[in-house]
Predict the structure.
Amino acid sequence: MTVKQLVGKLHRWLGLASGLLVFVVAITGCILAFELEIKSILRPFQYVEPVPNATVLPPSRLKAIAEKQVPGKPAKGVNYGEWGRSVNVPFYGADPDYYYQVYLNPYTGEVLKVVDEEGDFFHFILHGHYYLWLPEEIGQPVVAYGTLLFTLMLISGLVLWWPKKWNRAHRDKSFKIKWKAQWRRVNYDLHNVPGFYALSFSLILAITGMIFGIEWLSNSIYWSTTGGKTLPVYQQPLSDSTATPRFADPVDRVWQRFYRHKTATNSLYISCPELRSESIAVSINHRPGTYYKNDYYTFDRYTLKELRGEGPYFGAYGKADFGDKLRRMNYDIHVGAILSWPGKILAFCASLVCASLPVTGFIIWWGRRKKKAVKPQRRVSKPQAA
């Protein structure tokens, strides 16, 4: 058995083992690629008429109004969007799972909409993409290691695709689809040619996706991109619960520090601590629609002293080193948002090709299997009459 034949067997069995998983994860990825753009059309309550020089309500007021809409559940924070956006207040928890968002007019506090995100179509699709609609502790490793099999399949597919010779005939066979050929040949070309063109983007999608679900891979990539730093477990710094409270409205006071410097094109999120030891977290997003270009700050809720944390999700984006910036970018690279619309289109197309590969690959395997099952009949010559 040659090396290429061995790679062919590996490619086939990896495909059969992970094909259905890859199809579901890739097709849900296609749907999620333009989630924000679709929601911007379907959710007009995300927008308000901007009022020049008007005063917006502080977090304490908006939190109190929102909590009346979701009785018995505490608001997690208040998110002030860019100019012309409504404010949204999230509520979420586990056991039982719930996730609500209350949209408010930032100037008047008028309730624009209460959305049960657990019942949202895109939230349902997201669960399929992350966990295959299984419990998280089961679904996440299944998706992560299934993606690892898919990555190996992409590499083995490149080996099988590689032309024996680089003459014109072999180049045409590897780079072009023969649409006028029989359907089996067209299917074969649809498996090989788009798979090759989407290979680099598919690998990026797979690797950035695995960073969310495979700890050893995540730690290894962080170590290699930061010059040997260990990725710390995220822990939000705690407030000193033994300290005497100095302020009756600590969240509003922290908010005032930052909101006076807020521009029309960035967003500001401030958390509303529940526990005595919980601190106040602030994030300023300089590029709404993405998540990487954030400045993160944490404050003691009693003294308003700034607290320091370790890892990529603390401090200003501009002061982070290369490895920490790259880790912050991971999600936006995964969904293509790092390159705006062109990146999302590339992510959508690559996901669509990834979803097609198990289908066209299965058809190729099934066709060859049927051929082997049909044995050629021997011709028996009839004796000639005397």
Summary: Residues 295 and 317 are 5 Å apart (CA to CA). The beta strands are 77-80, 87-93, 98-104, 111-116, 267-271, 280-285, 294-299, 306-307. The mean pLDDT is 92.
